[in-house]
Prior knowledge:
heterodimer, A: mainly alpha, 2 domains, 1% strand, globular, B: alpha+beta, Jelly Rolls, 6-stranded antiparallel beta sheet, 3-stranded antiparallel beta sheet, 9 strands
Amino acid sequence: MKYRDSMLSATMDGRSKQGMQALWVLLVLALSPLARAEEPRQHIDVGKLPQQATLVEDVIVPVPSEVFGVLDKLGSPNWHDVLRADLPPVPGARPETALLLGDVIAEGFVAVEAQDPEQVKKIGRSVLDLSAAMGVRKAVIARSNAIIEFADKKDWPRTRRELDGALADVKQAMDELHDEELAQLVSLGGWLRGTEALTQVVNRTYTKDSAGLLHQPALLDYFDRRLAHMSPRLKSNEVVAKIQKRLPEIRPLIGEADSDISQQSVDQIREIVHDLVIAIAPPSP
Amino acid sequence: MKAFPKFALAFVCLSLLLPSHGRATIDDALSFALEAADPYVKQGFTVREDYWGGDLPVKQQKAIVHQLFKGNEYWFWMGTDVETARVSVHIYDSDGNLAEVEHWQKPHMAAARVVPKTTGSYYLIVEIEKSDRERTHWSLAYGFR
């Protein structure tokens, strides 16, 4: 500021310093990009978005860390009770492998919450096996190793970040192989297992806030749309068909924007997603 | 050297010398978005590794639906490779009400922060407010804590 004053004093003889300071401030403000920033509208008509925006099909599917991060803040349930004991073997059909891959990555987050390094390491290896079956092993080797390494060190925040990254890498590699539909099944498998875990946790210590985490209409609609537009070959898969049939049953249970989700609804959601998760990852006999 | 290899070599050299207007510019836009994110990483925000982007004409908005969770805090960072462009990102709730608690715009970048009052769907509206290009590349990244 002193430098600015001296510059003005040297170049603008005969004018009051105060006046020049004010002029300088006005000049800086006028030239500042912040001064030109347009204030956003306080309200938009979301019903008219297709006209004013070129795309509303885009839905950002959150990474599991976003949900588990909130659960962290809500308290510490017994995650060992939520953690699955067995990891199913690689299925034969690719759609089921894709669903299971998403499911196992989501299971990794549960294992991180349970702070169980051995289970996380098993999951890291399972992710690699399932990725190999999908033809994207190379894309996740580094992530899988990092998951195992950080779990060994009990560095849970970094393990969680690597699990998020593994999900992104798998999907990107599958997109590059033009397996976009299978990549969507990876997301769906992860979402179903994550939702199942969420309902288990919410049901044990029910609060309106924790149940509110299940209010995910855009995601449900998105998955519903994606399933509807899948190729007949994928839709004819038994597990995919079951998911497509049962997913719409969740929609009325997740409530409207301002309404609460009751404990009974949480329980009903849990039953539906549990049934679907069992179809994706059948327990060992 | 035969004619084809010479041609191929020239093509490769030209490809390296000429700016590419596809992926590279979106990646350049992303680098500005991530530059905008940098100070917030130090504040504990986790930046998601995925990003969204494309190109838009001036004054045409694009809406992206995002599931946000009450209990988290989010920053969305938008970047562009066009120096003269002014971009914006704003966040609205499912009823269309402005939901962000702060926003800013700078050359090459813009950002908005939201602390969701409810868990649910939110609309991210991105826009090229000003640019000397017919279409301007943009990229969007976000972080949460």
